[in-house]
């Protein structure tokens, strides 16, 4: 009986060795999951050109979310030809956020089922088409409707692009590479948009095209999304993720071969698939079919509604809701806030303030919201400075994300961002507000580097995008509620000079 057991175990080892040695055709997940985890497979790959290309591609794709979020604030103060006023200027951001909230849940779940790359390609295609449509919107209502579709497509970039990139990064480099892709999205979304605002928006442009006037804000909308188009083109040449292929029982040799081809452009140290096979032949201490069965049951049992995933999801939902409400809720209105102060107004005791500008008007009246060329320049420069300062802090965050840890780095940045918001309200001075806007922009944008990395690492592969979708839904929902409060307030009278009896 003992010899029969040994013979049976040896047969299993021979079978597994035969599977691993077949470098053509039959190299798939079933031949490796018994003897290694997904992380060990990814860790065995060389860091090369492919890994730099994947985090750049992911960062450019994710930048679409940050780009539109930033340009909304500039559109509402420059799109004078489509009927924006004080009572309806909040519709654009609310429509965009509603689209994100719905798409985060739907597309996050679909990406876990159909694949991250496939959903990303479809979503970015829809996004780019809708950007062109928005640039030719003939009235504000059309722009608001298109913004909801853009938000729906944008949700995939926020919820999926990080999950897709994460699944190619070895553990020792995961924190820095994920930090780099988040920094790319944040820097392009903020720095590039504010720079283009300074270059394009102050210059008047009026070209009659049928029923619309093709003005500078339309050019701005198209030019700012060039990085997303570039990221989309790169994504077409990227493979599906290794982790997703393993979980879904797909062959991974084509993926490894594509990684080798991209890495070989600069340097070739041997095939990743060959190295993987050789490394696994040395680790073939197979624990039998019981190991295969237990791994399958474990994967099936790791559902999002079970512990510890449910607890993590609930706690992160609270963190995302609070951070998104303060960071993105203010980012979208930064151009309006800065322009308000440049017109000589303050948040406190506005009835005592006088206006040096003929365009000065009370924030809560139905007068036009467009600002002068000088004010657009001042607003763009102020926000641009904050985004320029984002770069050195991004480098510091990427360096510290492994040393300090994701959690503590995020907590530090959150407290600094909250302090700058509170100080902005208390000091209520144009010089102080300009300085604090720079501090807030610099710190709040970089808070996503540890938060996004930390969140992605807290969930397993087969529920990661679903979890990110739910977190984005909860975060955007808090922003929608905050904006609704602001929009509703526009319809109430101001009581500064009112006799309250």
From TrEMBL:
PROSITE patterns: MFS. It is a multi-pass membrane protein. One of its GO terms (molecular function) is transmembrane transporter activity. It is found in: Membrane. Gene3D superfamilies: MFS general substrate transporter like domains. Keywords: Membrane, Transmembrane, Transmembrane helix, Transport. Residues 32-501 form the Major facilitator superfamily (MFS) profile domain. It holds the Pfam family MFS_1. GO terms for cellular component: membrane. The keyword Membrane applies. The chain crosses the membrane at residues 67-84, 90-107, 119-138, 144-166, 178-199, 219-238, 313-334, 381-401, 408-427, 433-456, 468-492. It comes from the Eukaryota. InterPro entries: MFS (IPR011701), MFS_dom (IPR020846), MFS_trans_sf (IPR036259). The keyword Plastid does not apply. This is Major facilitator superfamily (MFS) profile domain-containing protein.
